Amino acid sequence: MPELPPVEVRGLTKRYGTTTAVDGLSFTIRRGAITGFLGPNGAGKSTTLRALLGLVRPTAGEARVDGVPYAKLDDPLRTVGAVLESESFHPGRSGRNHLRILAAAAGLPVERVDDVLATVELTDAGRRRVGGYSLGMRQRLSVAGALLGQPRLLVLDEPANGLDPEGIRWLRDFLRSFATDGGTVLISSHVLAEVAQIAEEVVIIHRGRLVAQEPLEALTARSAGGAAVVRSPEAARLRDALARAGLEAGPVGDDGLRVAGPAERVGEVAAAEGIVLLELRTEGASLEEVFLELTAGGPA
Amino acid sequence: MTRLFRAEILKVLTTRLLLWLGLLVIAFEVLVIALHVGHDSLDSLASEGNQRDAVSIAAVSVLISLILGIVASAGEYTHGTINHTLLVAPVRERVAAAKLAAAALAGAFLALVSFAFAWTLATLLLSARSVPLHLFTQATLRLMLGTVLAAALAGALGVGFGLLLRRQTAAIVVALVWLLVGEPLLAIAGAERYGPGHAIASVVEAGRQGSDLLGFGGGLAVALLYAVVAGTVGTIAMKRSDVN
After folding, report:
1. Interface contact A107-B243, CB threshold 8 A
2. Interface contact A50, partner B, CB < 8 A
3. Of A166, A210, A270, B238, which one is least surrounded by beta carbons within 10 A?
4. Domain architecture of chain A: domains with CATH
5. pLDDT tens sequence across B143-162
6. Percent of chain B with pLDDT strictly greater than 90
7. φ and ψ at residue A92, rounded to 5 degrees
8. Cβ-based contacts under 8 A for chains A and B
C-alpha cells in the first residue's frame, strides 16, 4: 500500500458569500521536504491552511493530514504543529502558562513546556505575561506551541511576518534543522526570497487556484526557457560547434555564451569537440521573477 | 475529556480575571454588609430574616459567574486563543462541554468563597454589636447551597451565550441589558418569573420565594432548561462557525 502524503488537498473550495477564496484547489506535498506555499495576498493561502487544520469548513472538497481530516486525527498535536498568521494570545497570561494549557489539553507532560521554551530560546521570558512580548517573541512562542507534541509535520502560515532579520535567520535555521531530522514542512509566505532559501518544492496559487507545483529548481529553470550559461577560453570555437549541433548561442562577457538549450547538451558538444569549459550552469530566474510571471494573469 | 476540563480550569486560573472578579464581589459585600449592620437598629438586626438578608448579598456572585462564563467562551474569540484551543482539540463539542463544566465549577467556587466571606463578615460585625446570632440555621445553609447551585448554572449559561455571540463585550452588554430591562418587561405579560434571571433567583432564594419567583424546584428546572438550551445552541453555533 503506497504511503499516504502528509498533506493532501483535493478539490478544495471555500466561498464566503459571493467571494470565492479557494476554488477547486488540489495538491499534495512530499514527506520529508520543505514545501513553500506561495501566492499573492488574498490568493487563498491562509484559508487553505485553515481548512487543512479544521478551522474553516470547506464549501466543497477536502483537505487531509496523513490521509484523514484534521478533526479525525487521534492526537492532533503529536501529528501536526501549526503556526497561524497573526497568532493571538491572552495578553494577561504568561507564555509558559499558555503552553501549559496546550500541554494539559493534549495530555503532554509539563516537562515538554520547558523543553520547547528552551528550543525557541524563551526560557527567561517564559514566566512573563505575553502582553509584554515583542512580535518576534510571540512568533517564537507560536513555534514552541507547534513543537509541544513533537510532530513530524509543521504547517506555518506566514511565520516570518514581522520578524526582524535575526528572527528570520533563527526561523530559517530552525526549519532546516527540523527538515534535516526528517520532518516535513508546509510554509506559506509572500516573502519569496525567504522561501527560496529553504524550500525544495513550491506550490503556487493565485485567486484560489493552483498555478504551479514543482521542485524549486525545475520551476526556475523552466521559467528561464531551459537556457544554459557557459564559459570557455575557446568561446568562439564552442559557439561554432554548438551552431553545428543546432544550438543557438549569444555572447555573454568576454568568454561566455548564453545557449538556448539544456546545459547537458552543451556539455556533450563541448566534450565531443575537446573544448575546455570554465563554467556550465542552467540559467535560473529568481523565484520572484517566476512568481510574478506565473501570477501576472489569471490561473493557468 | 478530562484533559480538556483541566485545560479549561487552567485557563481560568492563569489570568487575573477570577482574582479581580472575586475582589469585586468581596468589596461589594464589605460595603453592603457594613452599611446594613452599621445602620439597622439592634431590634431589627436581631431577627433571623434580617441577618439572612445581610448574608444574601453573596448572591451577587451569581451575576459575576454569568460574566465569567461569557468571558471563558466569547473571550477566546476576542483574544484569538480559540485557534490554539481548536488545534489541540478539533472536536468542538468536546471543547464546549469542557467549557460548560469548567465555568460551572468556577462559578460554584466563586459563590462558595463569596458566601463564606459574607457569612464571616456578618458574624463578626453582628457580634461586635452584641446582636444574638441566627446565622447557624438551616435557612442559611439553604441560602448557601442555592447560591452555589445558581452560580454554577449561571456560569454554564454564560458559556452557552458567549459561544452563541462569540463577542465578549457584546455578550456581556446584551446579558446585562436583558436582566435589567428585558426581563422586567416580561412582567407586562406576567411572565417574568419564567425569565432566566428570575428562574436563577428562585434557585438562590431556595424556599423563601417572593411573589414574582417560582418555587425552588420549578426555578431549578427552568434555570437548568435555559442552561441546557444555551449550551446546546452555543455548541451548534460554535461547530458551524469558521475560525478566521
Report:
1. no
2. yes
3. A166
4. 7-221 (3.40.50.300), 225-283 (3.30.70.980)
5. 999 999 999 999 999 999 99
6. 73
7. -90, 0
8. 82
Look at chain A and count its residues: 300
Closest A-chain CA to B79: A90
The 3-state secondary structure of B146-175, one letter per residue: HHHHHHHHHHHHHHHHHHHHCCHHHHHHHH
Contacts of B79 (CB under 8 A, 6+ apart): A88, A89, A90, A91
Coil, strand or helix at A17: coil
Question: How far does B10 lie from chain A, in Å, by closest CA?
Answer: 6
Each residue's pLDDT tens digit, A231-258:
999 999 999 999 999 888 888 888 899 8
Is A100 at the interface with chain B, CB within 8 A? yes
Residues of B in contact with A57 (CB under 8 A): 240, 242
pLDDT in tens, A211-231: 989 888 777 766 656 678 899
Q: What is the value of pTM for the model shown?
A: 0.85
- Percentage of the residues of chain A whose pLDDT score is greater than 70: 92
Question: In the predicted model, what is the mean pLDDT of residues B176-185?
Answer: 91
> Could you give the number of structural domains in chain B?
1
B240/chain A closest Cα distance in angstroms:
8
A96 touches chain B (CB under 8 A): no
Residue B22's domain spans which residues? 2-240
